[in-house]
Amino acid sequence: MKKMLAMLLTGAMVFSLAACGNSSPGNAPAQSSSSSGESAAAESEPAGSPVTLNVTTTYAGEDTNAGNYQDAIAAWQEETGNKINDASASSAETFKARVISDFEMGSEPDVLFYFNGVDSNPFVEAGKVVSIEEIREVYPDYASNMKDGMMGASPADGKNYSVPVNGYWEGLFVNKAVCEAAGVDIPTADTTWDEFMEICQKVKDAGYTPIAASFAEIPHYWFEFCIYNYLTPATHNVLPGSVDDDHGKAWVNGISDMKVLYEKGFLPENTLSATDGETFQLFIDGKAAFLIDGSWKVGGIESSTDDIDNFTVTYVPGKNDRKSTDIIGGLSSGWYITRKAWDDPEKQKACVEFISYMTSDDMVSKFASVSATALKNGVQVDESQLTSLAVAGLDMVEGATGMAGAVQDQVTQEARVPVFNGMPDIVTGKADIATAVTDLLALVAAGQ
């Protein structure tokens, strides 16, 4: 059976890291699922009395997948005889505070769908959730349908604790007609940064703008990938301690490469004053070849052109230890099993079965048909229903070798000012790069 892929389409969906979809008839998986969504473990018919699991998620309120989640848990309850005591609530700071408070008071749920970044540090550091590594000692196939390197390791200790569903990605969008007119090949997984610079020069020489970007309004996409070129998926999300440590030097070197892009004339002439909308229009109108943006941009491009086949998306070329196939993206939420439930003989197996059911290939395909996942086999959706641009995005994510979240998300708007707002002065040499990074880190340290 042909593998079918799908991980993207429109923008708004990318901010909803939620599950969706009705389950198909069958047994709930006892461990991990095969690509067909069928159980890879024993029958899940509970032995003895039904088990009631206390579950908390963000699939509630205005979340677009709240109803789908309710359908899924209803199906699981009917198939297994077990029960779900659902305490889901809309994702907000009050929800985060409630979850942390529940852990502190010893009233945490059995299963939790929650953020896997710094927000999870309190209960990870307290040993109140179980690592996937430990779960696999008993259930070796647990989450085996996922790429471990894309599951969202905890910043507290680098271990995976949660099984993700879907998220977002960032990539290099391409106007094919511009590349053809300039006589250049579209970058691939094997294209290096130096080769990309040569491509940009040829595009410029042909009379086109190589890169559509507003360094006045949104320099952050190029900021991410340029500093990523001096780091790895495992280290990209570590904030520098100072401008002189390895991460600080990576930031300085990466921003220096942004300055080179400006100096070589690879950006729009008005990049220091243009809006993002203006530079995006250059790309759509066939005046610029490349654009870095997120998976949410697929819908924007689809609605802005009558010739969607003229556009594709590929990897941002890399250098140093970063492979071009190491992408920026996020699977910022996932399913946790709490220590309290794991140590309960009656609940342990039911927790594993429930999460395996909710993260099978079939179920995630329904949850995440518009965004990135960590599935080894990719999402199974009818490609004929997608545009060629959407399919290109799916292929790109399936071929990713690593994923790092956007490090800017660890920096407040106020702390970003010296680098992001100061980018016009930085690339024109009016501001020193190392000083700008030092000022940003000082604001981070001051809690700004």
Describe the fold and architecture.
- By secondary structure, the chain is α/β, with parallel strands linked by helices.
- It has two domains: 51-167 and 331-379, 3-Layer(aba) Sandwich (D-Maltodextrin-Binding Protein, domain 2), CATH 3.40.190; 169-329 and 392-447, 3-Layer(aba) Sandwich (D-Maltodextrin-Binding Protein, domain 2), CATH 3.40.190.10.
- It contains 17 helices and eleven strands.
- The protein has helices at 66-80, 93-105, 121-125, 132-138, 176-182, 193-205, 220-228, 246-263, 276-284, 297-302, 339-342, 348-358, 361-367, 388-398, 413-420, 423-427, 433-445; strands at 52-56, 83-86, 111-115, 163-164, 168-175, 209-211, 288-294, 311-314, 326-330, 333-337, 402-404.
- The strands form two sheets. Strands 5, 6, 7, 8, 9 and 11 form a six-stranded mixed beta sheet that branches.
- Strand 1, helix 1 (66-80) and strand 2 form a beta-alpha-beta unit.
